[in-house]
Amino acid sequence: MFTILPIKGYLDKIDGFFCDGISAGLKPNGKLDLGFIYSDTLCETEAIFTLNKFQAAPLKHYQRYEKGFKTNFVLINSKNANALTGEKGIEDINTIFSSLNFDLTNPLMSSTGVIGNPLPVEKIVAGANSFDLSSKNGENLSQAIMTTDAYSKTSLYEVKLEDGSSFKIGSVAKGAGMINPNLATMLCFICTDAAVPKEDMRELLEQNSHTTFNAISVDGDTSTNDTVLLLANKKSNAYDKEAFKEALRLVMHDMAMLIVADGEGAKKAVAFEVINAADDKEAEIAAKALSNSLLVKTALFGEDPNFGRIASTIGASRVTCDETKLVISYNDVVVFNKGEIYFDAAQEEKAAKVLKNDKYKVICDLGAGEGKFTAYGCDLGYKYVEINADYRT
């Protein structure tokens, strides 16, 4: 038995972890743009990355370390993705780390921002050399890694085990646009003092990513820099696999839900729950088709319960389906039931009322089997176009 309790604060409340964020001059107007995570003991590390073929330089740099390496430092910059920068992008990372005045072991770098520009190495070195590695300022870190995010994204839990021992796990993430994951999405840094074995870290990251980060979509685009990084310094000496798996799932779910709710300009966070599909894979295909559909997203933005767009998208996904078995509901309001249209004026009013909420479910019962999957998406409105039209400026 174990108990998992959400606690207030940032990942710097976890024993042995330190963090902060500063302004290094990458963003205008003195905004925070450079941050770090430091552990006073070496951490086991695991990561899952984007499947975009053009992986950014920080991801390639990570993958050049020997298998099983440990680290004590992560440097994170915003405004510049260091992507499509070739070998020079990796050399720039090495130049930065060799210029720092700290005793670091296998340091890691993570970047987010505009693709196709070289790193401002001198600014980053100057900024990083001003770090105080004894700082505990998770709020600054969360601000420093943001790009188009409307708010910071953090999560923290304490896990109490049956033998009286306990461990903490927390995270900080950024992400609002270019969200359509393949293994991971956005940047997410998860820290724990649990004594999790190295072999469990990869397994549990991949298992939990399927129903969290891999289940969300803002705009159908997959970034070059997507990273989920797990660091474990093991200082608590406490561990239980099932407890850690559930705590990790909660942290990843928290981050995924905050990201999809912060879809650039989004006002609605919607769960697309597909049930009774032919199998789980077909349920996933249909659910993700709904979370990615621009026509569905714009209907959500207009608060229009246009179930025709829902049905059309499911049919276009080519899963096993039959309109005489299909049931579509907005929360508990049924609008289409096995070939019958439940959409008179009264029912449409009830459905429209559901769509005025910030969060709700679109439930699609395919009546074809026992498969199920829930994908998460958001609406798409004018603000998304405005943000991305002006992104580089």
Short note summarizing the structure:
This protein is α+β, with helices and mostly antiparallel strands. The chain contains eleven helices and 15 strands.
Topology, element by element:
Layout: E1 2-6, E2 17-22, E3 34-49, H1 57-63, E4 70-77, H2 86-98, E5 108-111, H3 121-128, H4 138-144, E6 153-161, E7 166-174, E8 187-192, H5 198-209, E9 227-232, H6 241-261, E10 269-277, H7 280-292, H8 294-301, H9 307-316, E11 327-330, E12 333-337, E13 340-341, H10 345-355, E14 359-365, E15 371-378, H11 382-389
Parallel strand pairs: 4-5, 8-9, 10-14
Antiparallel strand pairs: 1-6, 2-3, 3-4, 3-9, 6-7, 7-8, 10-15, 11-12, 11-14, 12-13
Structural account:
This protein has 393 residues and is of the alpha+beta class. The chain has helices spanning 57-63, 86-98, 121-128, 138-144, 198-209, 241-261, 280-292, 294-301, 307-316, 345-355, 382-389, and strands at 2-6, 17-22, 34-49, 70-77, 108-111, 153-161, 166-174, 187-192, 227-232, 269-277, 327-330, 333-337, 340-341, 359-365, 371-378. The strands form 2 sheets. Strands 1, 2, 3, 4, 5, 6, 7, 8 and 9 form a 9-stranded mixed beta sheet that branches. Strand 4, helix 2 (86-98) and strand 5 (108-111) form a beta-alpha-beta unit. Helix 1 crosses helix 2 (86-98) and helix 2 runs parallel beside helix 3 (121-128). Residues 181-185 have low confidence and may be disordered.
